[in-house]
Design brief:
- The complex is a heterodimer of chains A (240) and B (265).
- By secondary structure, chain A is mostly helical.
- Chain A has a single domain, classed as Fumarate Reductase Cytochrome B subunit.
- In chain A, 68% of the residues lie in helices and 5% in strands.
- Chain A has 14 helices and 3 strands.
- Chain A has a 3-stranded antiparallel sheet with strand order 2-1-3.
- In chain A, helix 1 runs antiparallel to helix 3 and helix 3 crosses helix 4.
- The longest helix of chain A is centred in the C-terminal third of the chain and has 32 residues.
- Chain B has 265 residues and is an alpha+beta fold.
- Chain B folds into 2 domains: 193 residues, Alpha-Beta Plaits (2-Layer Sandwich), CATH 3.30.70; 63 residues, no CATH class.
- Chain B has 8 helices and 10 strands.
- Chain B has a 4-stranded mixed sheet with strand order 8-1-10-9, covered by helices on one side. A two-stranded antiparallel sheet of chain B has the order 2-3.
- In chain B, helix 7 packs across helix 8.
- Classes of the chains: A mainly alpha (240), B alpha+beta (265).
- At the A-B interface, helix 8, helix 10, helix 11, helix 13 and helix 14 of A face helix 3, helix 7 and helix 8 of B.
Chain lengths: 240, 265
């Protein structure tokens, strides 16, 4: 079994992966330097003005990520927007089954396309908070001195709440990545065919079954997990 | 230490600016910094001119908006005064936005405002501005005693200045540095009843809420991960078994969908 060929499916091209990780680095710099103003143990970062400089540099990178994406892989950006905002009846069914998905099960869910219903919600919230956090951030940066007390209060509240939404979304993003072994999609760019079938069956079926979309490799990733489960009775799995 | 207070009786002020210079020299301020300024206000038309010298400086509000918005705790209340830990200041300028008197400034990347001469108080001395004043405009002491003194002075001043009044007994919850004015505050360029929005809901409401949501999501995910991971591996390995069984059969066409449909039942 260890010598069996594994079929891998191309999920993200190089440009998409680069944009993702640039965005990731900018996001975490922003999060940590921003938390320095909320969480007292981190406030030493803010004292010398270092965190402010970092926050602004990372803020510009963060703000320009969609532009960078468009320059590096316009098709990727276009597909992302299109697929994220195409809702079908299946999405509603999927969302009804979300609690089960949260706890590790996919078999009860209707088959999904390239972007599942949870990701669609995630993307919509991300886009809303992207504009909220960027707009309020630019105001705090560039309109300093003319906001007044009420302006400052509203702007900082919008900035903080959109930060909270993004941070919680990010926790969820990392959580599902780790639960469902999705990380290779953003490192090598390829996911196993098993993963693609479980999570994005309609997408897998729509792909040409040939390189570079689907490749064969003598991998061992999938085999590693098998011994644990070979004893699992079929009935138990179906019940879950 | 008790609640520190200072009374500034503007009816006595000569406008000599000695306090401005004493503060600047005593506190070793930067060339562009001033923690005390004296502004001359002229009212009426010649020849019926009236006027006053009004201090423009931190009045150390009891409900200090600058303290409520300071993200790093560089501004803080102690003994009724609004003190500054300059090393903690990030220079964000939020205090500049919210001060109803327009007092704090950001100079050389950090806040610039009177942090009080608390070090001199602690050595039993008085602030630089008070020490140098040639006209006894300022008095330091316990707030209640000074308020009583101020009321007596205002009563006496009313004969000459009918609009004489105390400023800072109620404003912003009470100013630690309060004034005796000879004219109504609005005439002298001071807000009669300065108002700020409920700034505390940001630091005491929105920020804990945001941090709480973040921490809660991390904890929930951390716990759920172990359950979800086990269940996912069960399901995934089950799926492999099914597809292996099916791939060994001659019908490879309907492989993926049939395996899924069986599981979905």
């Amino acid at each position: 079994m260890a010598h069996q060929a594994t079929r891998l499916v191309l999920r993200y091209r190089l440009g998409q992966r680069l944009v993702h990780w640039i965005h990731t680095v900018a996001f975490f710099i922003l999060l940590i330097t921003g938390l320095a103003l909320i969480w007292p143990p981190l406030s030493f970062l803010a004292a010398g003005g270092l965190s402010r400089l970092l926050h602004r540099v990372a803020g510009v990178v963060f703000l320009l990520t969609p532009v960078l994406y468009a320059l590096m892989d316009f098709r990727g950006l276009r597909d992302l927007v299109r697929d994220s905002f195409t809702y079908t009846r299946r999405d509603l069914e999927w969302l009804k089954g979300f609690p089960g998905y949260f706890l590790g099960r996919t078999s009860h869910l209707p088959p999904q396309g390239r972007i599942n219903a949870g990701q669609k919600i995630h993307h919509a919230l991300t886009i809303i908070s992207y504009f909220a956090i960027s707009g309020s951030g630019l105001l705090l940066w560039l309109a300093k001195g003319s906001l007044g007390p009420t302006g400052l209060l509203i702007t900082t509240i919008v900035h903080d709440l959109s930060m909270a939404v993004m941070a919680v979304l990010t926790v969820g993003h990392i959580y599902f990545t780790l639960v469902y072994d999705a990380l290779p999609a953003m490192t090598t760019g390829y996911v196993t065919e098993g993963y693609a079938r479980m999570e994005h069956r309609l997408w897998l079926e729509s792909l040409p079954q040939e390189p570079p979309y689907v490749i064969e490799t003598r991998g061992i990733e999938m085999q590693e997990a098998v011994p644990e489960s070979s004893s699992t009775p079929m009935g138990e799995k179906a019940a879950g | 230490m008790a609640q520190m207070a200072m009374l500034i009786d503007t009816s006595r002020c000569l406008g000599c600016q000695a306090c401005v210079i004493a503060c600047k020299a005593g506190r070793e301020l930067l060339p562009e910094e001033r923690w005390v300024e004296i502004r001359e206000v002229v009212i009426g038309r010649f020849p019926e001119l009236r006027g006053a010298f009004i201090p423009h400086r931190c009045f150390h509000c009891r409900n200090a908006p600058c303290v409520q918005v300071c993200p790093t705790g560089a501004l803080y209340k102690q003994d009724g005064l609004t003190l500054v830990n300059f090393d903690r200041c990030s220079g964000c300028g939020y205090c500049v936005e919210v001060c109803p008197f327009g007092v704090p400034k950001i100079i050389d990347g950090r806040v610039s405002k009177c942090p009080s001469c608390i070090d001199l108080f602690q050595m039993g001395q008085e602030p630089w501005c008070l020490q140098t004043c040639p006209a006894d405009v300022m008095v330091c002491g316990p707030r209640e005693k000074l308020l009583a003194e101020a009321r007596a002075r205002v009563a006496a001043l009313r004969e000459r200045y009918p609009n004489a009044q105390i400023y800072g007994d109620t404003q912003m919850g009470g100013l630690a540095i309060f004034l005796i004015l000879t004219e109504p505050p609005e005439v002298l360029g001071l807000p009669p009843q300065p108002q700020v929005p409920p700034l505390a809901i940001w630091k005491n409401g929105v920020q804990p809420l945001s941090l709480g949501a973040l921490v809660l999501s991390v904890v929930t995910s951390g716990i759920a991960f172990f359950i979800a991971r086990r269940r996912h591996l069960e399901e995934k390995n089950g799926a492999i078994q099914v597809s292996e069984v099916l791939s060994s059969s001659p019908d490879t066409e309907g492989e993926s969908s049939s395996s899924h449909d069986t599981k979905g039942e």
